[in-house]
């Protein structure tokens, strides 16, 4: 079996276990048994189950479906790309709910970095914010990403009752409020 297949099988095993267990109850032994690999094989690919969980989040939720070419986030496509991310979270709601409350910040760290990087691209593309220094744009992106993640986590805590489009509207509204603050800051 190829190395990438083994790594993905281990990830799929954790995802499968999270259908019925919370992350804090899953052991490396159970993951290895589910993947039909030795524990040593698990540790060859992952330092611990938290590193594996970060990989699972990336594979099952954060990454867009495999495409021939990676999509660059633009002012024109950010809404549909964000809807797809929210739909992937909803599609894997059981995995998400059984993992993120117990993951010691793995979800927040890995996803916040992903979202902040894309927001930074968008802010750099907005002509009205070209007056801002690079570090202000990057800090603003991190701030807005943290707010977006807070909205997504609230959505999860509410049992994913709202639609992905409603969650996107909430994120957009929060972003507009933040943009208003930036505009006022520019004038002062």
What descriptive keywords fit this protein?
188 residues; mainly alpha; 71% helix; 0% strand; elongated
What is the structure about, briefly put?
The chain has helices at 3-17, 28-35, 39-45, 49-62, 78-91, 93-99, 106-125, 134-157, 164-187. It is an all-alpha fold.
Poorly predicted regions: none
Report the β-strand fraction as a percent range: under 5%
- Please tell me how large the radius of gyration is: 19 Å
Largest sheet: none
Give a verbal description of the structure:
This protein has 188 residues and is mainly alpha-helical. The protein is 71% helix and 0% strand. The chain starts with a helix and ends with a helix.
Chart the SSEs and their pairings.
Elements: H1 3-17, H2 28-35, H3 39-45, H4 49-62, H5 78-91, H6 93-99, H7 106-125, H8 134-157, H9 164-187
Helix pairs in contact: 1-2, 1-4, 4-7, 5-9, 7-8, 8-9
């Amino acid at each position: 079996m190829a190395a990438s297949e083994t790594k993905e099988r281990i990830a799929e095993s954790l995802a499968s276990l999270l259908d019925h267990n919370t992350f804090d109850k899953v052991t490396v032994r159970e993951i290895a048994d589910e993947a039909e690999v030795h524990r040593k094989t698990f540790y060859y690919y992952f330092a611990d189950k938290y590193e594996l969980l970060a990989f699972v989040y990336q594979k099952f939720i954060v990454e867009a479906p495999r495409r021939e070419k990676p999509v660059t986030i633009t002012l024109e496509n950010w809404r549909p790309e964000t809807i797809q991310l929210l739909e992937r979270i909803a599609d894997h709601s059981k995995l998400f709910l059984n993992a993120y409350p117990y993951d010691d910040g793995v979800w927040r760290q890995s996803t916040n970095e992903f979202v902040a990087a894309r927001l930074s691209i968008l802010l750099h593309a907005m002509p009205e914010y070209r007056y801002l220094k690079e570090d202000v744009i990057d800090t603003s992106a991190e701030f807005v990403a943290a707010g977006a993640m807070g909205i997504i986590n609230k959505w999860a805590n509410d049992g994913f009752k709202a639609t992905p489009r409603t969650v996107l509207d909430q994120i957009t509204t929060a972003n507009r409020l933040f943009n208003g603050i930036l505009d006022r800051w520019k004038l002062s």
